[in-house]
Amino acid sequence: MVRQIMRIGELARETGVSVRSLRYYEEQGLLPAMRSASGQRRYPEAAVGRVALVQQLYRAGLSSKTIAELMPCIDSHTSTPESRARLAIERERLDRQIRELIETRDELDRVIAQTVDPTVCTVQH
Amino acid sequence: MVRQIMRIGELARETGVSVRSLRYYEEQGLLPAMRSASGQRRYPEAAVGRVALVQQLYRAGLSSKTIAELMPCIDSHTSTPESRARLAIERERLDRQIRELIETRDELDRVIAQTVDPTVCTVQH
DNA sequence: GTAAAACCTGACATTGACGTCAGAGGCTGA
DNA sequence: TCAGCCTCTGACGTCAATGTCAGGTTTTAC
Question: Which helix (H) or strand (E) element contains residue B44?
Answer without folding.
Answer: strand B41-44
